[in-house]
Amino acid sequence: MKHLIDPTDLSVAEIDEIMELALDIIDHKDKYNEVCKHKKLATLFFEPSTRTRLSFEAAMMELGGNVLGFSSADSSSATKGESVGDTVRVVSCYADIIAMRHPKEGAPHFASFVSDVPIINAGDGGHNHPTQTLTDLLTIRREKGRLNNFTIGLCGDLKFGRTVHSLIKALARYEGIKFVLISPKELRVPDYIITEVFEKNNIEYKEVSTMEEVMGELDIIYMTRVQKERFFNEADYVRLKDTYILDRAKLKLAKEDLSILHPLPRVNEIAVEVDDDPRACYFRQALNGKYVRMALIMTLLGVKA
Ligand code: CP
Fold first, then answer.
1. Nearest CA to ligand 1 atom 1
2. What is the pLDDT of residues 161-211, one digit of tens each?
3. Which of 49, 164, 228 to mutate to test the pocket of ligand 1 (most atoms within 8 A of CB)?
4. Integer Cα distance of 104 and 118 in angstroms
5. Beta bridge partner(s), residue 97
6. Could you give the angle at which helices 162-171 and 130-144 cross, rounded to 10 degrees?
7. CATH 3.40.50.1370 domain range(s) in the chain
8. What is d(CA 2, CA 5) in angstroms, rounded to the nearest whole number?
């Protein structure tokens, strides 16, 4: 039985197989519409979500399976004091696979020790979000036609941004990727990313504080939201929240084939005027999330078309 807790739980070969399967699902939807008949996905979301939970649920429905779960800790027995371990042990009696989001880093990892069915980390605090990473990789693959040899700028909250941490870990295993880290000093990537990912693997990276100085170098820009819910101090959030806003003026400095990604939700960091630009990929990215989660569910359940 395999769980997905950290993006590196999947080898590059396994990720490539999931990408191929997702692409085949996109091209041949009818072939897959009953492959998970009689299978159940439980979505245990102790923290809010729109895309991740609903795309998981849509994915299972489009595979012919069923869905159960809860969308907030308030509607579960967590409010009565039940532990994550007990919750997961019980739900693994009812479902064949579990997607779990929790504000505490490591909660899905702990759940994987007590579960009788595969656990998918659907986001744990500021730590990891491996299924967003699969979504991002499928989007890059579809937009650029490859997963190697490009320069990617990651912009915004690189400290608490779990999507950023997971994407860096995954992309670091592909050839010829250069990373440009755009953040205020307070929101730089954690030290372990610098030492354990970039320096240990001799990967080219630089840290800058403005978008303008690097826009023209980038093949991909990955915008992120400054996350109010991760700050201990409201004043710091207010001071930093609008540091970076991608708008038409900044896009004039960018390559014509730039790809603009964002895991969403966005607040102000991408102006709405950018949505009509063909380089804006973020709504296509949200759709890719459903297809890649279909491929992941099939893979972890060992289901074939
Ligand atoms: N990208 C993402 O995780 O979005 P949600 O929080 O809406 O699931």
1. 263
2. 999 999 999 999 999 999 999 999 989 999 999 999 999 999 999 999 999
3. 49
4. 19
5. 41
6. 60
7. 7-128+289-301, 130-285
8. 10
Q: Whose Cα sits closest to atom 3 in ligand 1?
A: 52
Q: What is the pLDDT of residues 78-102, one digit of tens each?
A: 999 999 999 999 999 999 999 999 9
How remote is the CA of residue 286 from the centroid of ligand 1, in Å? Answer: 9
198-203 contact pairs (CB < 8 A, 24+): 198/172, 201/172, 203/172, 203/177, 203/179
For domain 130-285, give its CATH number from 3.30.43.10, 3.65.10.10, 3.40.50.1370, 3.40.50.2300: 3.40.50.1370
CA distance 289 to 56: 8
Taking the C-alpha atoms of residue 138 and residue 185, their distance in angstroms, rounded to an integer, is 30
pTM assigned to the model:
0.96
- How far, in Å, CA of 31 to CA of 34, rounded? 8
Structure tokens at 225: 């939201």
> Is CATH 3.40.50.720 correct for 7-128+289-301?
no
Q: How many angstroms separate the alpha carbon of residue 264 from the centre of ligand 1? A: 6
Say how many Å lie between the CA of residue 247 and the centre of ligand 1.
22
Query: Which amino acid type is present at position 288?
Result: N
